[in-house]
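Might I ask for a little of your time on a matter of protein folding? Here, with my thanks, is the record as I have it:
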Amino acid sequence: MREGPGATDGRPPRVGESPDGTVLTATRGEAAIDRATHAARRLIDALLRTDRDGTDLSGVAERLEAVVDDLDAQAPTVQDRLVDMWSGEGITRHDPVTGPENAIAPPLTLSGRADGSVDGEVTMTIPYQGPPTCVHGGVSALLLDHTLGVANSWAGRDGMTAQLTLRYHRPTPLFRTLTVSARQERAEGRKIWTVGEIRDEAGELCVSAEGLFIDKKVPRPRREE
């Protein structure tokens, strides 16, 4: 469940109940965790761009290992952290597509539209490369699977992905503004059908997706008693 601006009675914001342009995903703030995660995101990119022969990578490795050792020493158990993630954090902040607390997220920010669709812009860089200068096809699938899920929540009926079919129309470029969008088409019983696409900054269709979702939830983690 995604909760955010425009939510009523503790429910996620929905089309018809929230204004056009309602932000449906978490956005980066100035909290220490957001700043640290953004720095880690920059680190991932910088390591892929670094001059492996002209940089003191031994020194870099030692400093990074010290940071990780310090974080590990202070970390709660995985089970306790999972409980915290899923209890009262509001908009999901840790997922690998939109989460400002997840260093592998681009991150993508998605907004709900009055016509029932959702969309957002994102620029993918070297960490997401597949073919030369192009987004990895699996990363495109990740972006679309998540965006279709947000579209379902905006429409008021969401669930688990049962089937995701993608068509790759042309290479999806790195270092260019991409628009990712989705819309729920229909729901019958527990089945939900949703479509989405990725377009480049010239408006050319790069990837289209059709998804089948089942109205079912996975139980949230709980602390062991």
